[in-house]
Amino acid sequence: MPERMRHVPLDMEKAKRPEAEIHIIKDQCKGCGFCIKFCPQKVLEESQEINARGVHPPKIVDESKCVICGFCTAVCPDFAIFVVEKLSKEEIKK
Amino acid sequence: MVQETVHPLSKYLREAMIPHIWCTGCGNGVILNCFVQAVDELEMDLDKLVVVSGIGCIGRAAGYTNADSFHTTHGRSLAFATGAKLANPELNVVVISGDGDLFAIGGNHFIHAARRNIGVKVICANNFNYGMTGGQQGPTTPLEASTTTTPYGNIEHPFNLVHLAAASGATYVARWTTLHVRRLTQSIKRMLQKEGFCFIEVISPCPEIFGRRNKMRTGLEMMDWFKRASVVENFSDPSKAEISTEKLIVGEFVNTEKVSYEKFLHEKISQINEKRVGW
Amino acid sequence: MSKKGVLLTGAHFMNGDIACAEGAIVAGCRFFAGYPITPATEIAEHLSERMPEIGRIYIQMEDEIASIAAVIGASYAGLKAMTATSGPGFSLMQENIGLAIMTETPCVIVDIMRGGPSTGQPTMPGQQDVMQARWGSHGDYEIIALAPSSVQEMFDLTIDAFNLAETYRVPTLLLADEIVAHMWEKIVIPTAEKIRIVNRKKPNVSPEEYLPFMPDDLVPPMACFGEGYRFHATGLTHDEHGYPKTSSSEVQERLVKRLCEKIRRNEDKIMRVEEVMLDDADVVVVAYGIVARAALSAVRKAREMGIKAGLLRLITLWPFPQNHVAKIAGSAKRIIVPEMNCGQLVREVERAAKETSVVFLSKLGEEPHTPMEILEAIRRNS
């Protein structure tokens, strides 16, 4: 690892890692598995439940690992999953 | 996690026609997703957007888009779109169709639309076969591939669509796969902002009909091929943009400027009328 | 000829193709797409000059299939649109004529008939596309076809064709023969107030309430691209929303029957014939196009000779003027049908004439029937 990357950023305390809010519209899923397979953070896995179309929709393994890259949103052929940034309580109030 | 909610792109889809007819693992939905994402990011006026398609699985994309849309006869989407765009140049006319529709039965319209440089934007889903009719050989089927009409392996050389588009005069030519969702979306955005004839080929998995006869039984396996074999070679020679098991060259190949047909025509009309006296 | 303005009111000497082109301009045609073919090429040539000078669109497409498809696209984008061709090109258009019928696209298709089949006799007249006009596309439908007999009618009927297309949202055919198209004659272009122009019915509801294929008196009001209605149209069997319903027999029946009914129930308004000396006629000639002119001459000569002859000239070929033929069949003893084909419209005449005997006079090739040939037939059958 290069030397400069060992340093902690000066504004580290102020910086806040955005939290993800993953929405899965289960019954819209056709079970292609694209979102599960190509998630760079491996946030999703196949669930055991069977949806209205008779397939196993994805379930979230660990939402905190999600970096909101949005790949799952873009690669889903069925508009069945999307991810947004979770708003903090203060932001919701606003 | 919130389970049931409304997808942010659903306003671009015709609710009554969703869910779409496409199979599990099919890439057409990904293409539709990237297209409406591009429309969203550009904040395009849906009232001025016309989506035209021909016949085939992807042909249903027109009906799924919540804009003016027209589902033409097989192969004629570009000729129809030419008429619509010329008649009202303010419209953003996008053709979303398949390789068979655009390059077999509609091949002549494609080269002439590109030559004329009509300001129509084309997204072609290339799934290497005729999916809707059950998986017959088509103009993009790779050599030796097995289809329902090439049970002994395909002996016809396929078209290289980006080479064909570039040679025919398209001002924007790109190829992506359905795995390149970001680049595809960016590419669609770029194309939608251009003036002349533009073309994007999207290599799309067709596991149920094509893949399972060619050792790729699922959409995931086909997407794995895209991941393994894709090489981005922007502005490389489109004639060398091969598609093979080992190598799949993607990227933007052409991005030039040329006066569109409709602009030329309307300029001509004003010139003629300026010269005339007593009009 | 003056090259200014839309309406060239006054007397002119022109050929049928040019008269047709001028008729289209007057009717409000703002988009022409075509492909060169003898004997219809002059329509395209003339419009390539005339359309741009009045701010309208002319485009030469890569073939006739593209031409009709572009016409349908332009019509849906809000412009009155036309294409012109001859038999071989008309054959290529048939699939998309079906699309125009299914999507209820107002448009005009001019077919200048030459001798067929295949390349046949490109510069010679024929009336061989009469049945192709009626049945050329697949599936069940009704269509309108008009048959001009003179250069004046090439002008007048082209306007009528646009008006009918716009009224009923149906592709309307101008079915002319090569002679009428290439013949030079005097025509009179009237003043604007004497010309009736019909435009398609537009929706008077909001986009949220608009159903693109919900008929109002059998014909649905038509929104066009870019007007904010965001509708879908398809060649697939569709419901009132325009959405595909390919496995519903109910929707198929409702749609296809309406597409036929909107023409059938308005037949009386659509059909036009010219009746000459029919009241007491024993022998009636039923003819159309250039042949009707020879027939008129023959009928007059027959009257001079004391034979009670009459002429029923069909201006509308489709829908077929069945009742007019049935009426003469009730009073006349014989019906003579001269056609420049091997027997096409005569079958419809026979069907309508029931018991009355029908004599068919066929002629193919370079020349239409002469008045003497028709007169001879009248004499033989009187």
Task: Explain how this protein is built.
The complex is a heterotrimer of chains A (94), B (279) and C (382). Chain A is α+β, with helices and mostly antiparallel strands and 94 residues long. Chain A has a single domain (22-93), classed as Alpha-Beta Plaits (2-Layer Sandwich), CATH 3.30.70.20. Helices cover 16% and strands 17% of the residues of chain A. Chain A has helices at 34-38, 71-75, 89-93; strands at residues 20-24, 44-46, 58-60, 81-85. In chain A, the strands form two sheets. In chain A, strands 1-4 form a two-stranded antiparallel ribbon. A two-stranded antiparallel ribbon of chain A has the order 2-3. Chain A is globular and about 50 Å long. Chain B has 279 residues and is α/β, with parallel strands linked by helices. Chain B has helices spanning 28-41, 61-64, 77-87, 99-105, 107-116, 161-168, 181-192, 219-229, 261-275, and strands spanning 49-53, 68-71, 92-98, 121-126, 172-177, 198-203, 230-232, 248-255. Chain B has a single domain, classed as Thiamin diphosphate (ThDP)-binding fold, Pyr/PP domains (Rossmann fold), CATH 3.40.50. An eight-stranded mixed β-sheet of chain B has the order 2-1-3-4-6-5-8-7, with helices on both faces. In chain B, strand 1, helix 2 and strand 2 form a beta-alpha-beta unit. Chain B is 33% helix and 16% strand. In chain B, helix 1 packs across helix 7 and helix 4 packs across helix 5 (107-116). With 382 residues, chain C is an alpha/beta fold. Chain C has helices at residues 16-27, 41-53, 64-76, 87-102, 130-135, 151-168, 178-182, 249-264, 267-270, 290-304, 322-331, 345-353, 371-381, and strands spanning 10-15, 29-34, 57-60, 80-86, 107-115, 121-125, 144-146, 171-177, 184-189, 232-234, 273-276, 283-287, 309-314, 316-318, 334-339, 357-362. In chain C, the strands form three sheets. In chain C, strands 2, 3, 4, 5, 6, 7, 8 and 14 form an eight-stranded mixed β-sheet that branches. In chain C, helix 11 crosses helix 12 (345-353). The longest helix of chain C has 18 residues, at 151-168. Chain C starts with 9 loop residues before the first strand and ends with a helix. Chains in contact: A-B, B-C. Chains A and B meet through strand 1, helix 1 and helix 2 of A and helix 1, helix 7 and helix 8 of B.
